Structure formats: structure tokens, C-alpha cells
Amino acid sequence: MFYCLPLLLGLLGLFWQAYKGDRGIRQFWVVFFLFFMTGLAIVLYLNQTPQQPRERDYAYAGSFYAFAIWIGLGVAAIADWLGRLLKKQPVAVAVASVIGILVPLQMVSQTWDDHDRSDRYACRDFGLNYLNTLPDDGKPIIFTNGDNDTFPLWYNQETEGNRTDARVCNLSYLQTDWYTDQMLRPAYDSPALPITWPRLCYVDNGKHTFYPIRPEDGKHTFYPIRPEDKSILEEIKKKDPTVDPYELSYVLDHFVARPEGGYFPTDSLVLTVDKEAVRRSGMMIPGDSIPDKMQISLKKAYERQRGLYRVDIMIYEMLARTNWKRPMYMSVTLGPNNYAGLENFLVLEGLAYRITPFNFGTMRTVDADKMYDNMMKRFAFGNVKAKGIYLDETVMRMCQTHRRMLCLLAKSLLDKGETEKARNVLRKCKEELPAENIPYEYDDEDIAYLWYQVGEKKEAERVCKDVLKYDFQYFAYLNSLSPERQRTYVRTAYYLFRGLISNLQVLNMAESKDMKHYEAEYQKLLDTPVGTTAANLYMEQMQDYGE
């Protein structure tokens, strides 16, 4: 509740300056053009697209400074007018000063709790959790992508001196030559990344656009996949049977790493596996066998975009050269298009997936033992459990990421029959990420069932009720929207309904005394427009799955 006081003071100062004679109007135009050129003009010039990842108000900081000048002049205007009215300048100045102090005090009283970061160490601890997912040996590499999974890691290394043996490699930057140059240099206690390309083969002289306008621009940015050229590889194989032209390192050396720009003459590659190196690496080895070759398919990349960007190829280059001696990881917060087609070879060990030579056929593979050791013994949670602590949207998302990882761990332990360990994980989750500070949402539908599986019916009931309360409130909001707006939330409504059904089932299994109340709320929901649409979608999905 600011009561528009800063705005009113600024407008007051603006008009007071503008009508302060010739000198005032000259000063007004100076401030006005500072305000206009660093505010409205920048809005027009940048023409920012909608759905930005965060508020971009910092781009207009200059206009804020200009308006702050008018706010200060607003206080001077009050002092001037009061001086004329009271005929006592000292009294007028005192009153204006009090008013000038009361306005920021009012603002602070309303916004302090929304900006108070005291006793909150989530940024530091969560960043360290990424690094502590990595093994202590082998000078590991972790691939990140966004600000929130990169800068906290850099802070831990640069300022706190933590895990300086690890190398953080941001994939958003790896598309550029200047960052590749940096990765080819040692940093802290980490040696250079295993990239063997000459600089002439990856530099683009500043032409880093994803969609180059001219063919000669960005020649080392995008590499086409041409499956029709497999005949070239077959000819090579015929001439020299000792050479496997489909080997990743061979394709990179002879077809991709070229000064004039390269390409892939195949949509499938292989990587010969050094079995002894894999055994020494400490990674999880499913079963007793290690494959002779790692089969890498480029078919999805070919179907999606007919080629690969340099960032993916640099990952392949490192994979081909490191020979499993240097552990390579991918952050859990990478987008689905950032795994370079290796998603089926990944094993979750905490907040990062380890790249392995094993094709698991899914990204849900978990090294439960290693992940348990990491999350239960090596992770810290930034004091987000403190009563009354302020958690902004970004920190809340990272808390929910940790909660999801803990739930995945608990599920994996239950699949192995280790119920007691799974119970410990769920208790850790409840203790460190309490619902009072990180409320349950519809995508927390699995937590209640996990509590039920470990024999904690009361906890299962508690979580169910929290999630159901969220679901019903969300449905009430959706039903309050216009039919046009409701249609834009169809997918959200489906997931809400799916979670609602799941939690009603768990609530029933937990033998809750409030079951009838929630069943009645469910029946009411079915009579609403959004509830009907979501129920129909859910039934269609169940029929498709044969359930």
C-alpha cells in the first residue's frame, strides 16, 4: 500500500520544475530527455518479446533515476509552497523533510518482508549441492544451462573456495568460440576440458547466430546430418576393415572438425568403450556386462532440425576424448533439448545426471545408493525450513526441485525394497522442506503415496489434504475465468484432475475420516465447466492406456 505517494511526489516535482521560469524549464528538459531516452525510447528500441524469463525493469534504470530527481524536487516544491503559505521557511523545510522521510518509511514498511533475505542461504547451499553431487575424484565436469544452475556454482568456487576441482560448463555459452577458448584453459584446480579441435575449426569471427543470414556466417555453428552419405563411410570400411568409420572420434576428426565447416555423414555413431576405465570410474554398472560400444543415435536431431549445433558437438568431442576417466554430468534443470541425444545414457546421482555408456532406455534411472549418500549426507538446504523465512519465486522453484529429487530417491529405494531408507528420505524432505514454507502443489501428487508405501498413513493423509486443498482452490480459480480463458488452461486442468484422483485414492487407502467430505467436493467439481472438461480428458487418457 504505497497510496501512489512516490508517483504523486514525482509529478509534483515535475510540474514544479517545469513552471519554475526559464531556468526551470531548461532543467526540466534535461531531466525529461534522460527519463524518455532511458525509459520509453528503450522500450520501443528493444521491442522485447512477451514471456521473458524474469522482469526486465533493470533495463530502464536510467529512467528510474530521472524520476527519482523529480521525487526529490517534489519535496522541494512542498517546502517552497509551505514557505509561502506559513511565511516561516525553517518550519516549511522541517515539515517537507518529515513528509519526505515518511514516504520511503511507508514503502519500507510494506516491502521489507518481500525483500528480506536474512538467514537464507539457499543460493549458496543449493549451488553447492550441484557440485557435491559430483564425485570427489577425477576432476569432474558438470554441464549447466541457465543462470540459476550456473552462477551459484561459480560463486561457491570463486568466493567460498568450494569444489574448485570441478569444472562448470554452461551450455548456453559453449555455442560461442570465446567461451570454448575459456574452457580450453585450466580454472581453479580443474584442468582444461578435453577438446582437441584447432581454434580455426570452431571460431566464427563473431558470427554466432543460430540462423545465419549468409552461408559464410556461422559455418561452425550448425552441422547438418546427411544420412544419405553413409555410402562414403561404407567405402572407407571396405578399403580398410581395421577402421570403423562410424566411430565418434573418426567422424569428428574427418568430417566435422573442418575450417570450412563440417557435417555428419550418418545419423548413427558408435563409441568404443574402455571397460576397465568404466570399472575404475565408480559409476553404477547395471548387471555384470559392459557394452563393447556405445550406440549414439542422431535420428531425433535429424528429424527435429536436420542437424546439430556446436554445443552438442562439443559434448560429443569431450565424450570421445575423456575415455570415462573424467566424470561428465548434466544438471537436472537442463531443458529436454540440451542432452545432446544422450538422455537414455544418464543416471541420476543427486542434482545431476551422470553420462554413462549404458543405454537404459529412459531418463528415470537412479543410482539410489550414491544419490542417498549425496542427498542425506552431503546436501545442505539453505535454512529454508526456518519459520517465517521469505522464499521468493525462484528459490521456491529450487526448493521444489530438491523435493522432487528426494521423492525420486525414495521411490527408487522402495523399488529396491529398502523401506527404512525411503522413510528416512521422506522424513528428511519433510524436515528440510516443510509444507509451511514450501506448500504442496498438484505436481506433488506422488508424495502422499510414498508416505503410504512406507507405512506412514497419517503423513500420507496430511499431504493428501494439502494437495487436495490446492487442487480445489485452483479449480475454483479456473472456473471463475471466462470460457475463452478457460480453454487456455485445458492442459493444466487435466494435470490438476489427475493429481486430484491420485490423492483421493491415497486418502481412501489411508482410511481418512474426512473421505466423505472430499468425495462431496469432488462431485461438486464434476458439475463445473472446467471440472467436466478435465474429467473427460482424464477418461480419454485412461482409455488410451487401456485402464
Query: Which band does the percent of strand residues land in?
Result: 5-15%
Structural class: alpha/beta
Rg value: 30 Å
Subunit organisation of the chains: single chain
The beta-strand count equals: 9
Overall pLDDT metric: 90
Weakly predicted, low-confidence segments: 206-217
- Helix content, binned percent: 40-55%
- Apparent shape: globular
Strand order of the largest sheet: 2-1-7-9-8
Number of helices: 23
Description of the molecule:
There is one protein chain. This protein is of the alpha/beta class. Helix content is 55%, strand content 6%. The strands form three sheets. A five-stranded mixed β-sheet has the order 2-1-7-9-8. It has a two-stranded antiparallel sheet with strand order 3-6. It has a two-stranded antiparallel ribbon with strand order 4-5. The radius of gyration is 30 Å and the shape is globular. The model is unreliable at 206-217 (pLDDT under 50).
